[in-house]
Amino acid sequence: MKPIKFPQSNSVLVAPRNMDSTVCENLHIFREENNIISCWQISWKELFKLFRTRKIWLYVYSYSSSPPVALEIKDPWKTP
Questions:
Q1: Is residue 69 part of a domain?
Q2: Nearest C-alpha neighbor of 5 from the set 34, 32, 37
Q3: What are the beta bridge partners of residue 38?
Q4: E strands within 5-79?
Q5: Angle ∠(76,77,80) on CA atoms, nearest 5
């Protein structure tokens, strides 16, 4: 999956200087009060694998505990 820029993004989280861009990219986000939203695009190859396994793995790079996170497929700016 690749993080992508989206129309509502209002900030960018910059990759740490000690991390190569193949490991960590800048992340366009929408930030408000206690929420940060990012958008990720899946490749056709990844989509096929997801369809077969129905699994998504979440990596959180943290030196302590994991912050609250969520994965969604619903666009937060579109009504259901």
A1: no
A2: 37
A3: 29
A4: 11-13, 27-32, 35-41
A5: 75
For residue 20, which amino acid is it? D
Token match 């129309």: residue?
7
E strand or H helix at 5, and its extent? none
Inside any domain, residue 60: no
Residue span of the structural domain in which 38 resides: 2-53
pTM comes to 0.80
Here the tokens at position 12 are 């960018």
pLDDT tens profile 21-59: 777 888 999 999 888 999 999 999 999 999 999 999 888
Residue 21 lies in a domain: yes
Residue corresponding to tokens 């619903």: 74
In a domain, 11, yes or no: yes
In the DSSP assignment, the letter for residue 16 is P
